[in-house]
Amino acid sequence: MEIRNVVMVEPKAPGSHIYSRYLLPRLGLPILGSIARARGLSVRIYFEEMKALEQAALEGADLVCISTISCTAMAAYRLADRARALGKTVVLGGAHPTFMAEEGLEHADLVVRGEAEQSFPRLLDALAKPDGDLAAVPGLSWQDGAGLHHNPLPPPNLDLDQVPVPDFSLLAGRRGDWFQRGVIPVQTSRGCPHHCTFCSVTPMFGHRMRYMSPERVADELDRHRGQGDYVFFYDDNFAASPVRAKRLLEHLLSRGVFLPRWSAQVSVRAARDAELLRLMRRAGCAHLYVGFESVNDESLALLHKRQALDDIRQAVRAFHAHGMWVHGMFVLGADTDDVGTIRRTAEFALQEDLESVQFLILTPLPGTEMFAEMEAAGRILTRDWSKFGCHHAVYRPARMSAFSLMDEAFRAMARVYSVPRSLAHLGRGRLDRMLMSLYARNQVRRWRSENRSLLRAARQAPGGHPFAEPAAARS
Question: What pLDDT, in 10s, does the model give residues 8-28?
């Protein structure tokens, strides 16, 4: 086939969600767009949180590439069906199709599994030739008259210094060098050394950490000079290696690289290295997003977190001592959790004066150990992937009803982001915390409004489950 125009799409997440304040795309499509553009192709990326796909663009595309996670999969499938009805060749990629490739092939011509930087150029070559060899494309799944085919994944030794810089100019609806709210996304590593049962990062990117060189990170940051005033490092664990994190920051400081205020995701372990914390603060770190996960030591052990409540408390105090805003991320609903656990989580956030929190409902995502276990046990209540955004109880909890889990989780959020607490922030001159609190409280209200009928059905259903029966029973 002749490929001249490539349209790439990241579908909009359904309903109100935790990231709606900062509309930043995942980096996969801007990276693949860079690869396609370097080959002389016309590329347009539609990050639908920012701008919806235009019908004219879809009609003019030769190749349609859709990247999806689980909660956007239903929207991705509808888009893929729409594109194929127009005779377009459709490629699905991202975390969800990686682990649900056969489901994806019900809607798309091709599925690219895993990291696509090595696969995508070879796929473009294969599609451009009448006798192109799809079997030579690593990580590719497709079907023909001979059945389903799943090529081996590309080797996990990708040199991140060879990954193209994401080309954000390809985003439709983006104005010049503008970044949403001035936040510039940069990724310096992939992988995570931990083994959390609910996390899809390691099934997707592996346990072995891979890093960009300090020189490559510095070059990418300098390209963004003048384009924004805040950097968010997309790394799943920026300080997985404290030695490497310190070496990177020292290089950036010594070179005088563009590095305004910034934030990153870290684990509790980062708090154990006082030298690292001092260096992070000196380099401009303002906010940390920390996977605390639970205040229940039994749940932490069950989730393979390798940390305890005392570690979490000490980490919060160490981060605060170095002047960093702490955003605590918690998952609620492990088999060792009950309603009291959720209420204690809110109490902990208040006692430790966490600046902001996420109380997410534990969600068994495809590809994770938890998904496999719950699916085998018939505990997954629905295959409506739009409900897999960590705000709905999509499985049968062990010590409470699905209704109680959802209801208590949002009551806990409302308690942390209460009006009196917002006013107290204002009285202490904490305008940023007050604004965050009011925004979060509004999001809780919106979610409850959007899900009123589901909550009502869950409250009235036997066992408090919002879906009629487990997905396994319907299949």
Answer: 999 998 876 655 666 788 999
In angstroms, rounded to a whole number, what is the distance separating the alpha carbons of residues 64 and 66? 7
List the chain domain ranges. Answer: 5-150, 174-474
C-alpha to C-alpha distance for 417 and 439, rounded to whole angstroms? 9
CATH superfamily for 174-474 is tm_1862 like domain (3.80.30.20)
* Joined tokens for residue 320: 């605060």
**Residue 2 CB-density burial (10 A; 0-12 exposed, 13-18 middle, 19+ buried):** exposed
- Residue 191 token pair: 């992988």
Q: Per CATH, the architecture of 5-150 is what?
A: 3-Layer(aba) Sandwich (3.40)
Query: Of 104, 107, 109, 119, whose CA–CA distance to 28 is shortest?
Result: 119
- CB contact set of 399 (below 8 Å; sequence gap of 6+): 335, 336, 337, 338
pLDDT score, position 178: 59
β-pairing, 285-293 vs 325-332, is parallel
For residue 294, the tally of other CB atoms under 10 A from its CB is 28
Distance CA 23, CA 42 (A): 24
pLDDT digits (tens, 9 = 90+) for 455-469: 888 888 876 777 754
pLDDT digits (tens, 9 = 90+) for 78-128: 999 999 999 999 999 999 999 999 999 999 999 999 999 999 999 999 999
Query: Which residues in the chain show pLDDT less than 70?
Result: 16-22, 175-178, 180, 463, 468-475
Q: Count Cβ atoms within 10 A of the Cβ of residue 292 and give its class: 0-12 exposed, 13-18 middle, 19 or more buried.
A: buried
- Furthest-apart CA pair in the chain: how many Å? 70
pTM of the model: 0.93
How many residues in the chain? Answer: 475
